[in-house]
Amino acid sequence: MAVLAATLGVVATAGVSAAAPPKNPGDPGALVVGGTPVPDGKYPFMATLQDARFGPTPYDRHNCGGTLVGPRVVLTAAHCVAFYTPETISNLSVIVGRTQLSMNQGEERKVRFAQVHPKYKTDGSYDIALLSLDLPITTIKPVQLVTPGTDALERPGRIVTGIGWGNTEAQTGFPGGGVVNYPDRLQEVDVPLISNDECAVSYPDTSDRDLCAGKSGKDTCQGDSGGPLFVSLPSRNTFIQIGVVSRGRGCAALGFPGVYAKLSHEEIGGWIQNPTTLASLEAAQ
């Protein structure tokens, strides 16, 4: 992932401009590198955030990822939506259940409003937001979220999965960037979890609100922000989301894993699953 702070100036501009903002104005650089294409229907809970100002097709309009967590609620990263105003939120929609952006799959809904975590800061802390949809999605099962206050699924070394439509080309962890390639089909990558102590070597500002995962050649990247990090339970045909793609340096760069908002943290997962929060998002217009 690229450095979050590198795009924050663009975010501020995009949020107040009447013109179409640059592609992925809030994306710190999260996309799947070293992954494989996803078969149709494998992860129906996956969502693409679409900004109508970015172009004429869903491929052009893709901005960030997200997950369906309730019939009328999509979970994403705060930096993906914090710049929207009441006037510009009308440009935002989501498509849930689509694997290939150019195909006519899944359910599309307009976003009524975005609710950013009240403690969100542009340094990446509490980087989550919830989107309220104009109509419920009843044909797709929401993803299961990890229980707040637990850590049973977060053992360092555990293999977890990230998915997204982000850049598939590795990026250096230092300024200068590199080539980009945005796929039409959803990609998935399996990466190991890394302890917070190890992660702090690369990112001294990481805290117990973060999860770190990745290895050289495998990571999320630009375009993956807001998407899920999850544990697969094949015997139960279940996926448990433990993180939200947030930030990092480069993509799949040696020594720079990806950083994810930690959904088991009580101030993060507890806020998402708070009945008052969900009630306000699920309420009919």
UniProtKB/TrEMBL annotation:
It comes from Crossiella cryophila. Residues 1-19 form the signal peptide. PANTHER family: FI18310P1-RELATED, POLYSERASE-RELATED. This is Secreted trypsin-like serine protease. Keywords: Disulfide bond, Hydrolase, Protease, Serine protease, Signal. It comes from the Bacteria. One of its GO terms (biological process) is proteolysis. One of its GO terms (molecular function) is serine-type endopeptidase activity. Gene3D superfamilies: Trypsin-like serine proteases. SMART domains: Tryp_SPc. Residues 32-277 form the Peptidase S1 domain. Belongs to the peptidase S1 family. Pfam families: Trypsin.
